[in-house]
UniProtKB/TrEMBL annotation:
Similarity remark: Belongs to the glycogen phosphorylase family.
Species the sequence originates in: Halomicronema hongdechloris C2206
Name of the protein described by the UniProt record: Alpha-1,4 glucan phosphorylase
GO CC annotations on file: cytoplasm
GO biological process, one term: glycogen catabolic process
Catalytic activity: [(1->4)-alpha-D-glucosyl](n) + phosphate = [(1->4)-alpha-D-glucosyl](n-1) + alpha-D-glucose 1-phosphate
Source domain of life: Bacteria
Keywords for the protein's UniProt record, in alphabetical order: Carbohydrate metabolism, Glycogen metabolism, Glycosyltransferase, Pyridoxal phosphate, Transferase
Gene name linked to the record: glgP_2
A Pfam cross-reference name: Phosphorylase
N6-(pyridoxal phosphate)lysine PTM sites in chain numbering: 673
Amino acid sequence: MTTEQTQSIQVEDDRSGLGIETLRRAIADNLFYLQGKWPEIATLNDFYMALANTVRDRLMPRWLNTIRNYRRSEVRVVAYLSAEFLLGPHLGIKLINLGIEELVRQAVADSGLALEDLLAQEEEPGLGNGGLGRLAACYMESLATLEIPAIGYGIRYEFGIFDQELRDGWQVEVTDKWLQYGNPWEIPRPESAVMVRFGGRTEAYTDDEGAYRVRWIPARVVKGVPYDTPIVGYYVNTTNTLRLWRAEAAESFNFQAFNQGDYYGAVDQKIYSENLTKVLYPNDEPLQGKQLRLEQQYFFVSCALQDMIRLHRGAGGDLRQFHQKFAVQLNDTHPAVAVAELMRLLVDEHRLPWDAAWEVSQSTFGFTNHTLLPEALEKWPLPLFGSLLPRHLEIIYEINQRFLDQARVHFLGDSQKLAQLSLIDESGERYVRMAHLACVGSHAINGVAELHSELLKQTVLKDFYQLWPQKFQNKTNGVTPRRWLLLCNPRLSQLITEHIGTDWVCQLEQLRQLEAYAEDREFQRQWRQIKRAVKQDLADHIQQTLNIAINPDSLFDIQVKRIHEYKRQHLNVLHIITLYNRIRRNPDIDIVPRTFIFGGKAAPGYIMAKLMIKVITSVAEVVNNDPQVCDRIKVVFLPDYNVTNSQPVYPAADLSEQISTAGKEASGTGNMKFSLNGALTIGTLDGANVEIRQAVGAENFFLFGLTIEEVQQLQESGYNPWDYYNRTPDLKEAINLINSGFFSHGNRELFKPLVDSLVYDDPYLLLADYSAYIDCQDTVGQRFRETDTWTRMSILNSARMGYFSSDRAIREYCQDIWHVTPISVQLKPYVQADA
Ligand code: CBF
């Protein structure tokens, strides 16, 4: 369009106005024109869609003006590459961040609807497994709030994390159909599609200038189509983009095959391509050999880098300055192949000399490691890697050779060191080590909590640390206070705001002002009243959905997270059985009534984790139906734990269970959300628990368990769980009760794998930590009775959580790794031609 043409277009007030009547009219309008429905026949989902589109219209000027900013050549943009973004529902947070929640509530009410009912319609995009994906979502929100130009790049999985149902107490996986009613929050951009190649072979040639070059002749080509989602900052104009890629056939039909009558062959290509982004892989399962997973990783990384290069060149940029335009963060090893892909693009496609390209690459990438678990450190069998990405394997060999030459000088011919450092694992079957590729190709490497970052330097990345100590940093995780307090706990947020004003929402350290009220009787009363009210809400929800009556005055003891042996949900179960045995032994025993709440998904192929769910639900069935105990202990397993379902849970907790074996949990972020909402933590010295305890004060944290050093010593000295089992009567009684078939209708075989694993192997040292855990839980019970003390501790927990805001974490990344600064977005009217 010409400038005159665009200038003649007028913006309808219905698309931007914020008056209640305008909003009401806009919703009705969208219902009619987008949903094609009269109000009388519209479903709640139609109304949700109409409202979502109304909100989307209102953020459009901010979004488009932000995109304009990316294009300015002098603006450095953060590109966050992540295979997972666990965003949670959009509508609620967008209303809050745009500051229009109350207006919309009113407008919707004027149409005879309740905002809560519409919010409940949203199918959340479950494009992540857990902590890592949720962290990426918190970081995207903070980047926007802090006005940092940023793009998130990832995969638009057609099926995200499975929905969890419980049948007979077992987890059953159901496909997540998040797109079935359409997604109002995304805009496809087929005009910006890129092609991604796979397989085939490489070929050397001499270019016009006589230089030696390599070209890649692929076997297949897939089209990557971007779908953009706006990420709105809190009370700022900045609205960044999350760009997720969907795979499509390069040609929908292979016409040559079709013309020869091979119709099925022709559509094969389409099916093959679309499969690529069909489903998110659950973590905690061995990925080796899962070719599709490697294809997914390469696919989105290649799309992202091609997109960045296009943007950079489109703004007149020189590729030798690519790193000045983009700071690319590798969220774990999943996008690590980006190092080789950027080299390929720069050297093969854009003809930069190797050394210049390498300098650009290293200056571009930063790498975050999120786990020490050896099974999660990705490595790909060399034949698989080579057959899928033949050119990249050559590039990796070249990087490796140059890198080992450098390392050889440093380690003076220590061949064992070199073998350990190599990008290729040659100890047996040969593998490409993705973490090593990420370390070599990045200028900064960070862990996600102080302890984790230290352990990285001492264990899995020790050799790299010796070589490049200056590359290593710590960036303790954080969570966004907008979703994890303001949105999920409006009552507490209001109380806080009444006492210290609103600044805490963007400067979470301001919560410290609450310390002044920790002893204030009236404030304590209000604090308790709110906790009681949110507990009542959760109790009502549990009653309605699971038909379990729970006492809102009982201690809500909550463990919600992925189900994994290292997270030790079964240690929590041993405590429940211990209490149960105490009551059975002495029915008049005076114990604090507790409601144990669990939630979390097990990876579909992780048999032991699924058995852990079954043991929780089986114990729940017995305990909840035993008239002697059920007024004192209740056990609830909340099915389908996801972002939506978690939002009412954090505010309702009295006690947060963070009980992983020391050294196993990289950081945790649930621990932060609980504490922020005034729960006290029972935890080990693991991950960010260590820093949370330091921040809230040791006296406001229930610590138990072996330290990392003690864990190591015990394991080195030959840990024998059987001894602990035999010499700890309560433990023995609890385990025997499981083993006897008491919780499994007499079936002694059902839990045998779990029991055997504990008494004969116990890799996560539950039995060694059992007594300390039980003693600590007894202290928790006593303290809960001292209502004022508990309330003071609860207030101090919230008051001292400022450090754990994702805003703080993002500021640190910006300063220490990305070297980017905020830029305010000016709202120019959209009728203007491009500046
Ligand atoms: O850093 C974010 C989170 O990542 C994990 O979930 C992961 O997938 N590696 C870790 O297990 C968490 O400890 C960590 O908080």
